[in-house]
Amino acid sequence: MHAEPVYGHKKGAVVAGLVVVVVLGFVAARAAALEEGEGEPSFLGHPADTDMNWRVVMSEAIGYLAGWQGGSNPMDYAIRAAYLWQNGEMYTYNASGDPPMWWALPVQPDLPELVNVPAGTFQMGDPREEGYLNEKPVHDVYLDAYQIGKYEVTNQQFAEVLNWAHGQGYLKNFGGDTPYTRGVIYAYDQFITYTADIHPDTSQITYSDGIFGVRSRAGYGDVLYSMADHPMGGVSWYGAVCYCNWLSEQQGLQPCYDTMAWTRYEPVRNGYRLPTEAEWERAAAWDGTRHWNFGTTSDTIDITRANCHYFEGGYANPLGLKDSPFTSPVGWYNGVNPSRVGWPRLTMNATSPVGAYDMSGNVWEWCNDWWYRVYTNEPVINPTGPTWGSARLLRGGFMVYDNGDASRTANRGALGNPGGLNSLYGFRISRTP
Description:
The protein is of the alpha+beta class.
């Protein structure tokens, strides 16, 4: 058995003495991982974690080591408990290993990068009189300071949080009664997303041996491209909300949503959340003095600026993917990458006025709001939309057959069943600092 070192600089004195006792004592039998036929327990944490909060504190580690000395706990589990306590207390569960190596220190997650949006007033709606009736009239909206994702949440980021949530026992099979094993993912009695084992034509998320991962797909020149840095698609509004809550919990922040009522806590908490429709449009369009038509700080859109469908050029599809969805890596339109792999024409550095990428095109992005707030000439402060409804708002467009019209920053044309699992429904996160 290979045990990781447990001697350290912070808690070393106590642990060192205990481990010396362990090493010099007798070798206990290795514990079985799970008794056959019983399936996974509801809590998958280390047995030393008596309060089941995914932390092993000093009293728990010492208590478990004492149990080993008394002959009731196995030696390798006791060493692992001391290791977890000494090296940070927080830990995760990974079923791909063998016990007690199931329980490990957390891997530093791939956190979504945020950009700051200062407090102030912007003009919301279509200033060019070329949109739809629900985009009018243009009116003043005041927003408090907030942060919004520089990029759409990626498949890799979503898979990492799914693995964490799986270790917590949050994920369920279809119907919500049994621990997750495959296929459609449920949580709190709602659809979250699905995996490639049942939707190989649309899902980029894999599940094997208890671990969520990301698939690769063939593109230009028959090269296999990892979908890890592509936007997460096929996620419901509930799934986007769960990601926000779970990432908040993982990072020690306050979850922003009540997953019994599926409402946002007020006043807003310090965790991650979906942007309101107004926050989304301000970040996509407003530079402090004017409202840009597209989320690329431009009034025009073309194959060098956004991953859309163009009447003359067809799908942008910069990687030349062989089949749909024709997403691009987040932040692809940065002035360095080619507009299409194999073409000499480069992309523009097409950020929004606040520095966010892909706010036009790639995938639709869930917003917090119900469909939809009726615009008036009256100024509003921090609008959050109706208090109830049957559909949630999506913004930003995707590679649809409209020459980029859906990707206009004022366009409110997408509404979705919050439990819907369209392969081109994604999201970016926001936060109140």
